[in-house]
Predict the structure.
Amino acid sequence: MTLQWTAVAFFLYAEIAVNLILCIPFISAQRWRLVFSWRIWNWLSPYWNKCFFTMIMVLIFLFLDAVREVQKYSGPEPMYDAKVNPSVHDNIHMKLFRAQRNLYVSGFSLFLWLIMRRVVTLLNQVAVALENSAGLQAQMDGAVKAAKQHQDDNLMLKHALLDEERSMSAKKQQLKLEVEKLAEQVRAAEEAVRMSHAEVEAMRRQAKGLAQEYDRLLTEHHQLQNLQSAADKKDQ
């Protein structure tokens, strides 16, 4: 294996290891987001896209070269030479095997390189979604708590209004009883006044009758005195 294919093979092994680490189930997306927010990644972020596309171009070039090698050693001419010269048979098959191996190594390296970028992007998106959902959950809990508090306040206000209404109804009933009692007292006072007026009228009539009787008696007294005076004069 030449140096370039040895490097591609180690790159493939490193990609397999990184992807396996990224797929560990007990490491959450929030922890990976903390890892991705280290300063070293912020320092490398300006070069990340260039490095990513450069590796894609290199892997695509190696993949196409491996495809060319496979087509080269699997074509009719090498197979015809292998049949004509048996000593060349093993050499051609060995080169074909190496070309196929290089094809698989470069193809899987390219595939895992794209997968690794996609996995990192999805982990960041999942972490952001979880943070947003946590914030929304906190807001929803706050809204539910506030709604429950308003509901409790409305219930307390309703009970207070019911108690106030009952108190007002009791006061109204009490005032109604007091008004009825005062009306009864007013009627009793009016009856007493009416009776007093009747008594005053009776006494006035009685006084008038007494005055008339007094005048009559006084007149009779004067008459008697006059008759007595006349009789005394006659006796003299």
